[in-house]
Amino acid sequence: MAKIVSGRKAPVFEGPFVLFLIGARINALHRPDKWLPVIRGMVPMLIELQSRPEAGCLHTEFLRKSLREPIILQYWRDFDALEAYATRRDGLHWPAWSNFNRKVADNPAVGIFHETYCIDARRYEGIAWNMPPFGLQAVAGSMGATEGRASARSRMRGE
C-alpha cells in the first residue's frame, strides 16, 4: 500500500511539462478478439517506457472511467519526447499503432482516444490532503499548501 503523506500539500514542479491522457472503450463485450489485443498492447509499451526514462515519460497513473473504459494518465518532459516515442520505428508504439489501424480501426468493437496538454511552467496548480503521492506530486514531490500557497490562485501564480 502506498505511503500516505499527511497534511495539505501542493505539487512542486519547475518548468513546463505535458499531460497526456490515453484510453480505450470496449464497445462490444462479445468481441474480445477485437478489444483484448488493444488493451494488452498497452502493457509492453508501459514497460518499455519505464525501462527507458530517457524517452521522457516522467510518470504514469492508471485510471478507470468504467469497467469498459480504462484510461492512462501520463506526465511527459515535453511534446517532442512524446512525439518521438510515438513515431519511433524501432519502439513498441509504432507497430502497435500500425496493427490497430490494419485490424481494428474500421471495427466499432473498440474505440480509443488520446488528449495532449502542453502546460507552461507555473500554469498549473493542485492540492492533496492526506493522500499518497498522485499525479504531478508523484513526479515532482510536494510542499505544504499553507500561507502563501493556501489558495488555488496563489499556487497558480507560483507564490
Structure description:
The structure is a single chain. The model has no long low-confidence stretch (mean pLDDT 92). The protein has a 4-stranded antiparallel β-sheet with strand order 3-4-2-5. A 3-stranded antiparallel β-sheet has the order 6-1-7. It is 31% helix and 33% strand. The protein contains 5 helices and 7 strands. It is an alpha+beta fold and 159 residues long. The chain has helices at residues 32-51, 79-87, 93-103, 136-140, 152-156, and strands at 5-11, 17-26, 57-66, 69-76, 110-119, 128-131, 142-144. The two termini are 33 Å apart. The longest helix is centred in the first third of the chain and has 20 residues, at 32-51.
The overall pLDDT, averaged over residues, is: 92
Number of helices: 5
The residue ranges in which pLDDT falls below 50 over 5 or more consecutive positions are none
Order of helices and strands: EEHEEHHEEHEH
Global morphology: elongated
DSSP summary, beta strand count: 7
* Class from helix and strand fractions: alpha+beta
Rg from Cα: 18 Å
Strand order of the biggest β-sheet? 3-4-2-5
Helix content: 25-40%
**First-to-last CA distance:** 33 Å
Question: Sheet with the most strands?
Answer: 4 strands, antiparallel
Strand content: 25-35%
